[in-house]
Specification:
single chain, 109 residues, mainly alpha, 74% helix, elongated
């Protein structure tokens, strides 16, 4: 199943927060796309929405662990450092661009 494969790839990635946020956005987009089709599969649309929320939650869990494990200067750098994988946006900018409101609510910045 595609979702299990996505979770497996997320588990081995180098940028779990960026990857989690992007996976969330992809799933949310696909859910919206599915909902707008003439022959909408409501169960599939809901599953995609739930999967997006799951990946956003994974990103939140990683950043919360950073808050617990590192001093403020370190996790501030984690949140604000440019990420080449997403056109040098930082995590806050990325989260704002994809409307990852739960992730943003976890950020003390």
């Amino acid at each position: 199943d595609y979702h299990e494969m996505a979770v497996w790839f997320w588990g081995g990635c180098k940028e779990p927060i960026v990857t989690g946020l992007i996976a969330a956005k992809i799933n949310w987009f696909l859910s919206e796309f599915e909902s707008n089709k003439l022959a909408c599969d409501e169960d599939n649309a809901q599953d995609l929405l739930d999967h997006g929320d799951e990946f956003e939650s994974k990103a939140c869990q990683v950043i919360i662990e950073c808050y617990r494990s590192f001093d403020r200067p370190v996790w501030t750098t984690i949140l604000t450092a440019p990420r080449p994988a997403v056109n040098d946006m930082n995590l806050i900018e990325l989260a704002k661009n994809i409307n990852a409101d739960n992730f943003l609510s976890e950020s003390p910045i």
